[in-house]
Design a protein that fits this description.
The chain contains nine helices and eight strands. With about 220 residues, the chain is of the alpha/beta class. The chain has a six-stranded parallel beta sheet, sandwiched between helices. The protein has a two-stranded antiparallel ribbon with strand order 2-3. Helix 6 links the parallel strand 4 and strand 5. Helix 1 crosses helix 4 and helix 3 crosses helix 4. The two termini are about 25 Å apart.
Length: about 220
Amino acid sequence: MIKRTRQKMVVFDLDGTLIDTAPDLIASAREVISEIIDVEIDSETSRKFIGKGGEYFIKKNLEFNNINLDQSKIEKLISQFLLIYEKNISNKSSLYPNAIRTLNWLKDNGYILNICTNKPEKLAKIILEDFSIISYFDEIIGGDTLAQNKPNPLPLLTIMQNHNIKPLNTIMVGDTTTDILTAKNCNVRSVCVDFGYFDGKMPGVEADFSISDLFELREILLQNY
């Protein structure tokens, strides 16, 4: 086993942070929901439901469109959604500008890179493979990898423990309050991108830094880490 000498780590969220996955998520949700009711899913509203896993995404879309189903039908719908989404996961999705440039700079400068997402681990790995960026990351923790998912501290704490990295030397990059809360729950500083699926401010929950371009992360790290 190779002994790691790097001491600083950047942990990325996935959806809305590195990859704009909304087009394929929304298209898949439209397909499964259209099978039970003729309703148009609003793209802008639906984007705000991304980031807390497929179950939350489908349930919030149903709730927003006043669709009431019993739990067994909802569970079936979620299963169908995940199957359809897996087949169409990269059709319309795209890397955000400067994603590759940022990842290259981070690797060149010795940062450990990991993924902490609420997307199922299998799907996270598929889309990272599809966009040829999976090799940048040492570890990928999805929403179903552990007993708890974000904003519970377990996923991020597990990554830090696995790499023996202290909170002071870790930074979490995401796009929603889920990511900010996760970082706060682990005493880790957070960077919030303003181009993702931000779901609204929560009192007392603010990121330590905000960026409009992924490569702006470089300056934050140079000045603060």
